[in-house]
TrEMBL record:
Protein name per the record: sn-glycerol-3-phosphate transport system permease protein UgpA
Any single GO CC term annotated in Swiss-Prot or TrEMBL for this entry: plasma membrane
Ranges that cross the membrane: 66-92, 104-127, 155-179, 200-219, 265-286
Subunit structure: The complex is composed of two ATP-binding proteins (UgpC), two transmembrane proteins (UgpA and UgpE) and a solute-binding protein (UgpB).
GO BP: transmembrane transport
The protein's role, per its UniProt record: Part of the ABC transporter complex UgpBAEC involved in sn-glycerol-3-phosphate (G3P) import. Probably responsible for the translocation of the substrate across the membrane.
PROSITE patterns attached to this UniProt entry: ABC_TM1
UniProt superkingdom: Bacteria
Family: Belongs to the binding-protein-dependent transport system permease family.
Protein location: Cell inner membrane; Cell membrane
Principal place of residence: membrane
Amino acid sequence: MKRTIFGNQVLPWLLLAPQLVVTLVFFLWPAAQAIWQSFLREDAFGLNTSFVWFLNYRALLNDGDYMAALGTTAIFSVSVAALSMGLALGLAVSVDRLVKRAPLYTTLLVWPYAVAPVIAGILWWFIFNPTIGILPYLLDRVGYDWNHRLQSGDAMMLVVIAAAWKQVSYNFLFFVAGLQSIPASLREAAAIDGAGPVKRFATITFPLLAPTTFFLMVVNVTYTMFDTFGIIDATTGGGPNQATTILIYKIYADGFLALNLGSSAAQSVILMAIVIVLTMIQFRYIEKKVAY
């Protein structure tokens, strides 16, 4: 293995400088500001600021709406991750069996990933609109009265479907790459031994996809925690009765709408800590069961 030795010790730092600057300006500095502001209480106009230590955090623990948003986030995250990864895996397995038309199907399935989250939310809002949407009309024909404006279950299904649809393409690409990296000889040998398609998938294909599945699990959890704000805002606005208010949307509602900046900052810190802890747990415990 050939190693590259830089004669100039400054050059590596110059090459890293753009990424370091981006990380400092767009992550470390805002994170530090959020942590500092979470210990403050100020009025809506920013004219009076006081240092209150952990009062904002204690208030959140006693806030029923915040605890409800925490539970809603857990349900939403698990549902979106399971639905998007399950659909992506099924589509990837189907495409992997194709030979001639695989690139065409892959291109078509990747397109939704290029759609912005807010646009994806608007698209599904139109599809499920109780007045003009096609799906509520079809559901009404079979006796189901769909109305995500009034029924919390319908609203949750809407945001889960919209968020999962947006993420399926990303998961699909990695599952296809993982399937193509599995030696065909392994599945052929299992087929010769009499193993059917289901058994080959359960005993050979899926275990060998463990690294890809683990990676996508981490990515999907992060996606549901942060990148789904536009979908929630465009479809339900956190309603009805805060039934679809996840943590990232509550941060926006309390900070930018209610102008409670101290509580919003504390919620941001807690959300960041939750994502870090979940990621550490996944790498600490779940990765042990992954065979690379």
